Amino acid sequence: MELVDWPAGTERSFLRNAQGLRLPLVRVPAANARATVVLVHGVAVCARHDFLRAPRRGARHTTFDGSFAHALWRAGLTLVLYDQQGMGEADSVRPSCRHYFERFDDLAEDLLAVTAAAAAAAPPALPLYWLGLSMGGGVCVRASQLRATPAAAGLVLLAPMLCLTAAREELLLPALGIRNRHLYPVMRQLSACIPTAQLVRKAPNAAFPHLEEELLAEPLNHSAPLRVRVAAEFVLATEAFMGGGEAARALEAARVGDVLLVHALADTLAEPDGSRAAYERMSVEGEKALLLVGGGGVEGSFRREGKGRGGAAAAALERLKDCGMWHALTLEPGFERLGEAIGLWIGESAAARG
């Protein structure tokens, strides 16, 4: 992350997790901070890629000013960014194998460790939030199930990886008509026998091709098919989330303060049905809100319930319901306005906590 011209006062460090792996951390303190937000990136990228921006189209994401992260910081939120194990500049559990992890729960445990470090660096009364994009959203939900009480004051889940039924239809071997779903019956066996093989394809960002160029421009990112173990863990995690009932891994088991879910209706990578289910099934102590982003003739919607505040954040989120996004919500056109609205929402949530 050394390429970035971070704001003055930015702190860089490393956290050693329970597996002995070093995870790089960047803490960007805000003046008169209202809350701390831990940013959790998606699969096969680094934190810098998901939350900063490119200085020009097609370039690496090295610019803080004008980025999604900058919008949050300007709202008075101290930011903590980290690379998840096996990705970015973080250590890998198998040193020669990048963009790999053994268990999805390892990522959730890492988030809890990062949270503890972030809380220790902040004033005692400052609330702490998690913001997860795509896979990062799934990590946040899983981490919220691993403690008897909420580990974060609130969650912001952007296109969270909670439901992956559409990904089953992505072509794996186009010439033979073989799709990802054809591997599902033997996923566990493949995960045990060839865990690091790169077999499972994910959908490209056809809606915004320049972002696909920027993904490829970053050498820390991974554009090849997902590794078998990673894909298998995704399938197991998302099927557990969507399974329903009171199972320990179902969405009902999440322990949450406030929660905001944002999902584009056009998303074909992580399905909006996951966010709909989370909104309906997760119990919260305060407010839960769901923004479904439409556009291109598809009408979006905004809903909220619980101890709703109905302030500036709700109005700002409502105005985004037809802005036309796909999946990379922190990077696609409209990300600045989304960052500002989320900053308002977290600020109102923190104020309501007293």
Automatic annotation (TrEMBL):
Signal peptide: none annotated. Residues 61-288 form the Serine aminopeptidase S33 domain. This is Serine aminopeptidase S33 domain-containing protein. It comes from the Eukaryota. The lineage of its organism: Eukaryota, Haptista, Haptophyta, Prymnesiophyceae, Prymnesiales. SUPFAM superfamilies: alpha/beta-Hydrolases (SSF53474).
